[in-house]
Amino acid sequence: SLQMEVDGMEDEGPSQSEGVYVQSALQESLDLEMSEPVDNVCVDKEAVDKLTEGFLSHYLPDLQNSKRALQELTQNQLILLDTLDQEVTKFRECNALPDLNSLFTEAKVYHNKLVNIRKEMIVLHDRTTKLKKRALKLQQQKQKEALEKEQQREKELERERQLVAKPAKRT
Question: Is the pLDDT of residue 131 over 80?
Fold first, then answer.
């Protein structure tokens, strides 16, 4: 009966019922495989070839399309996994950094400290300049006083010499 169906397909050419014939032939083939082995089964090679060709022509395009779709999905999944890995890495790096607000607050605190230190340095510089001027004036004043004392002492010595009695010359 299988041979008659295949022969009938040859005459009619490809039709819609061809899939039904292929399915029934495959079913009969599967039934034969499940039952006990039969010796000396005569199978027409041409019929097997046509059934195989029909089976492949019917299912192969869908299988190839499915294979391409699965390959594309797999490739897209790999791309997504790589992208997700990069994003996770970025999030880990962001979490590893201290909070930006605290960094800016800390920077502001240190800036204020620097400004205060600078002000203190300016005040200290002014004080040292004033102290140096005062020290110079005091030094000049002490030198002046020392000079005046020395001159005063010399005058007193000169005066004492003049006051010291001189023996009168006798003529």
Answer: yes
